[in-house]
Write a structure and sequence with these properties.
This protein has helices at about 5-10, 15-40, 55-60, 90-95, 115-125, 165-175, 195, 215-220; strands at about 10-15, 40-45, 70-75, 75-80, 105, 135, 160-165, 190, 200-205, 240-245, 255-260. With about 260 residues, the protein is α/β, with parallel strands linked by helices. The radius of gyration is 17 Å and the shape is globular. α2 crosses α3. The chain has a single domain (about 5-260), classed as 3-Layer(aba) Sandwich (Rossmann fold), CATH 3.40.50. About 30% of the residues lie in helices and about 20% in strands. The protein contains eight helices and eleven strands.
Length: about 260
Amino acid sequence: MPVTDELETRVTMGATVADAARAAAQHAAEAIIGAVQARGSARVVFASAPSQEAMLAELSGDERIDWTKVTSFHMDEYLDLAMDRPQAFGQWLADRLPLTALPGFERIRADADDSTAEIARYSTLITQAPIDVTCLGVGVNGHIAFNEPAIADFADPAWVREVTLDVVSRQQQVDDGLFTSVDEVPTRALTLTVPALTSAATMVCTVLGRQKAHAVARALTGPVETACPASRLQEHPGARWFVDSEAASELEGVTVTASSSS
């Protein structure tokens, strides 16, 4: 299949942020509902980032989803940051999931005395059954979760590991308004690995903003390589991308499916 035809089936461009978020949430909701209907429950991994906020608001408001039957995970968490800080990824997600989802939300314990023990605990939780859906974004350096270009491993045998954060990723947190300076951003985190994220049957990748345009183009049309961890999604048959016009601005000559408000 020509790359332009393939991208048209895998990439939806919203005319606005709201349109992209709505299309992403609908795709995620259908996968969650399908898992519940097939097996009686669903297991979903969520990213915690401003790019996910509008999508999560749409998803949380979807009355078709029975959140009591959904087990939720988050894909990364800072170490050396109190778990109740608004920048903590678990707290950020807990503040945005519906109340009925919170009993089934499994948080990474950043306050654990031993990160090795926490890695083992969360690895056990995440591997207890298949993941149905991963809802993710992409960093300006092409990372997914905190699998940075310098350390990403597409064949990583681990499902959770401790990582040192790239300065580009730390600066992105400042640029997103989550911290006032890069010195405030923790340097260590726990992250789900690339194999853990891509184990999901359905991957819903929501990317917004001009600052992500180069990463989107590289991930979708460049080589599959750890220098751009998001490129791994090219090889995932269940990966679908939902972008706004700014994030798609460097996809020159590529036809994608358009989505707009009805």
